[in-house]
Amino acid sequence: MRYALRKVGLFALTLWAAVTLNFLLPRMMPGSPADAAIARLSQNGPVTDETRAAVEAQLGVPDGNILQQYLAYLDQVIHLDFGISYAFYPEPVSGLVATALPYTIVLVGTVTVIAFILGTLLGVLAAWRRGTWLDALPTVGGSFMNTFPYFWTSLLLLFFLGYVAHLFPTFGAYSATAVPGISWDFFVDILYHAALPAVTLLITSLGGWIIGMRNAMINTLGEDYVTFAEANGIGGRTVALRYAARNAILPNLTGFGLALGGVVGGSILVEQVFGYPGIGFLLFNAVIGQDYPLMQALFLMITVSVLVANLLVDILYGVLDPRTRR
Amino acid sequence: MSENTTRASSPSPVGHRPHPAVEALRGGLRAIWGNRKARIGMILLALFILVALLAPLLAPYAPKDNSFDRNLGASAQHWLGTTAAGEDVLSQLIHGARISVIVGFGAGSISTLIAVLIGLTWGYITGFAADVVNFVVNLFLVIPGLPLMIVIATYLQNGGISVIIAVIAITGWAWGARVLRSQTSTLRNRDFVQSAKFSGERAPRIIFREILPNMTSIIAGGFFGSATAAILAEAGLEFLGLGDSSIVSWGTMLYWAQNSNALLTGQWALLFAPGLCIALLATSLTLINFGVDGISNPRLREGSTGR
């Protein structure tokens, strides 16, 4: 219990530091949103002082000293009020984020869980049947797929299955003609549009889980207690799953927790290629449109979700591996 | 550890004996070379480095020479066709190797160095100091790499390749440090560390002379891992148009390909080649890792049954 409390305390501290960093980051960088907007305006001719004042008022240039700005920022964060988006003016940032979030969580979350389970099982199998094709195929294939740049896999699948073969839609989360709502047709349409991004994410993330589990498993298979269990005549499958895999999965669980935390921000490139309206695509649009309020809110949210996942993994790890509690 | 003792006892002419570190490196390379997968990786990597070094000699045209017809398919003059701006794709591909190799090795070594220094110290110490380090590393770990890189790159529009290397290194070391920490804290309670401690060894010596050699494979694996990640991250940033889009790299090639609708004009070579190169370069590093794993972890060695 003390272990968990200490972790929660650290979590609160880290949360504060992350929120503060998000405040400081844009202030450490050269230039400001208003300067950037004015620089773009000045390409069309001289900018008057009135125009400058209007731009600054519109973009909500912070006033007061840095402490007042910081307090105002904390107040905003607590109320989840991140202001008005520049790129999607006059939409509030929080509304845009709320619309995009479910797409990413369902798509990337599902794929992450599937990839972890499938990859871990294949890893156990590869280590257990070491030296056979059951080892060679997933290990070599997995490590090769693992090195594919996400966006390239996306581009190729989109090109061959979308543009050339016309098997899958090439853009968006649902057809332009579909009626959003709770209906079977809409559900199928959503799945159809999510198929290619999901396959891309699965292809590129599966290999890591296979290799990680295989190598951890090979280590535990060499431990004395495994040899002892085998010497006692315990069946091969029982030794593999109940003795070796149970211990080998620990390092992979850390990775899984962090991967779950990374779900929110982990698919920027894939979403950009497929025009899938999730958090990643929103961040891309914010970056392209130099939409600083939106960018800051998204960055904060992506950070906080990883932070929460990290806390849960730490606590879980303490339960599963008593050695770390020391 | 056992590697060192066996090598020290191998016969070699006294007086001409190379420095122990050189000998260890040579032994390590030989061990990696002995692994079939790693051998393929090393040949592949050497090929890419060679292409990067000799790019001006190998490329048929200058990478930015846009005097050709646009959107050409493959032909004898242009093996991979031309871009929408009328540049030779093959020449761009060959020159693009330079950026990826530089970014991979540059960012990979910097982040590995940080990971080793912080990870090992963190794993050895306990109590309040460990919590402070935990706090700092967690902070770096929770800030997701790609989004942070994107945000910084947006503020520093066209910062150049050194900015990209710095950003990738700073955002990339925390994971390695965490892995090294957990390994160190397991080793911390092993007998050889305890006996070193009781015989009065000082902490830095225990950490870097007793514990470190047991983690060669993890550290080397971490280096190749972060080099791979750096290559992919750089390509991703360039693909989003956040790097310096005037340089010729595999990432910018894909960026211009997507922006000039290569998907619609059907120039599959332009889409296929740069990504394949990124994947192959990254694969070569991963393959080498198979051999590296075998050096200090005999259980992972090829041919050993592991049981």
UniProtKB/TrEMBL annotation, chain A:
The entry's keywords: Membrane, Transmembrane, Transmembrane helix, Transport
PROSITE patterns linked: ABC_TM1
Record membrane topology: Multi-pass membrane protein
Keyword Nucleotide-binding: no
Protein family (similarity comment): Belongs to the binding-protein-dependent transport system permease family.
Protein name as catalogued: ABC transporter permease
Gene3D superfamilies in UniProt: MetI-like
Source taxonomy: Bacteria, Bacillati, Actinomycetota, Actinomycetes, Micrococcales
Chain ranges passing through the membrane: 100-128, 149-170, 190-211, 253-274, 294-320
Automatic annotation (TrEMBL), chain B:
Protein name: ABC transporter permease
Species: Brachybacterium halotolerans
PANTHER family according to UniProt: D,D-DIPEPTIDE TRANSPORT SYSTEM PERMEASE PROTEIN DDPC-RELATED (PTHR43386:SF1), OLIGOPEPTIDE TRANSPORT SYSTEM PERMEASE PROTEIN APPC (PTHR43386)
Family the UniProt entry places it in: Belongs to the binding-protein-dependent transport system permease family.
Pfam family, one: BPD_transp_1
Bilayer topology: Multi-pass membrane protein
Coiled-coil regions, chain positions: none
Record domain ABC transmembrane type-1: where: 101-289
Entry annotated with the keyword Transmembrane helix: yes
Keywords: Cell membrane, Membrane, Transmembrane, Transmembrane helix, Transport
InterPro entries named among the record's database cross-references: BP-dependent_transpt_permease (IPR050366), MetI-like (IPR000515), MetI-like_sf (IPR035906), OppC_N (IPR025966)
Localization (cell): Cell membrane
Presence of the UniProt keyword Transmembrane helix in the record: yes
Region described as Disordered: 1-20
